[in-house]
Amino acid sequence: MTIGNLLKEYRIKAGKTQRSWIGEIISPSFYSKVEKGLSRISAEDLIELLRRNHVNLASFFDEIDYQTKSNDALEKEIINQITDSYYDCDLKHLKEIKRTIINSTFADKDELLLRVDSVLAIIEQTTEKLSAKEKSELKSKFFNAENFDRDTITIFLNFMYFYDFGSDLVITKKIFRQFKNSNAEDTQFIVLGILINMIEMCISENKYTDAWELIEMSKQVPTKPITCFSKMFLLILENLLNYHDEPKQIYIDNCQKEVEQLSLIGMTELSKNWQRMVDENTKMTN
User: Fold this and answer.
1) Rounded Cα–Cα distance for residues 105 and 75 (Å)
2) Which domains does the chain have, with CATH numbers?
3) Quick one: CA torsion of 56, 59, 62, 65, rounded to 10 degrees?
4) DSSP readout, the chain?
5) Fewer beta carbons within 10 Å, N or C terminal of the chain?
6) Buried b (16+ CB within 10 A) or exposed e, 110-133
7) Which of 68, 67, 69, 118 is nearest to 97 (CA)?
């Protein structure tokens, strides 16, 4: 059964018109062609459409005979969904993704399961439940080559907490040197994410000189729409470093402004996480 056929079947079972089924995700004329098999829906739009209509991803994918090309596209979208769910701390969605992977015919099924299990362990703070084999694979599988690519730095961004501090710092600086002049905005976003994680680790380890060096590195990455949130996080970290060096209320106030902005734009869980970090690092100084 094709994707278009199956979408139509699910839509009719739900008693919805095409327009009410798709909302604002894609145009009605384009969706009509998808159901007829005249156009191919992107993996990203497909997953968003299924989630909008509360369709179980695993059940839907299990009913489709995928071509290799569509499998590749879906694997990439699954990886993006894992990353998004990590930042949103969305355990429910991650578990749904895991069920989807288990019931899939993906060529890299084991690797995808390793990714999602590792992210679940990080969010649930149960990394000790990962087997020695899983941890070893995370640490060694992606970083034997001299040069990184977008996929490997994305993986490192999500799983750098499985490395020791020294290894993380070396890899972070190596990635920055390789990509600091990149004009690809998605790559800039990933690099900033790695720097943010590393600065947090520096603060946790009381490595303030290293943290300041990383802050200066981050300032070499231009501010663009895609990097705005990252720059907000970096402002919080820079003010925490300033507070450590010179404990003034102004630095706490600056942190609070950025945390409140996150909450105002709907990133509630993320704002709570940053608030905890601010509280922990300002109380330690007092």
Assistant:
1) 10
2) 1-55 (1.10.260.40), 65-141 (no CATH), 144-286 (1.25.40.400)
3) -70
4) --HHHHHHHHHHHHT--HHHHHTTSS-HHHHHHHHTTSS---HHHHHHHHHHTT--HHHHHHT----HHHHHHHHHHHHHHHHHHHHHT-HHHHHHHHHHHHTS--TTHHHHHHHHHHHHHHHHT-GGGS-HHHHHHHHHSS--SSS--HHHHHHHHHHGGGS-HHHHHHHHHHHHHHHTT---HHHHHHHHHHHHHHHHHHHHTT-HHHHHHHHHHHTTSPP-GGGHHHHHHHHHHHHHHHHHHS--HHHHHHHHHHHHHHHHTT-HHHHHHHHHHHHHHHHTT-
5) C
6) ebbbbbbbbbbbbeeeebeebeee
7) 118
Question: Residue 212: its pLDDT value, please?
Answer: 97
Task: Please list, in sequence order, all residues whose beta carbon lies within 8 angstroms of the beta carbon of residue 127, skipping any fewer than 6 positions away.
Answer: 118, 121, 161, 162
For 66-114, what is each residue's pLDDT tens digit? 443 456 677 777 877 887 787 677 888 888 888 888 877 777 888 888 8
pTM of the model: 0.59
Amino acid at 75: E
CA distances from 14 to 50, 112, 193 (A): 12, 31, 40
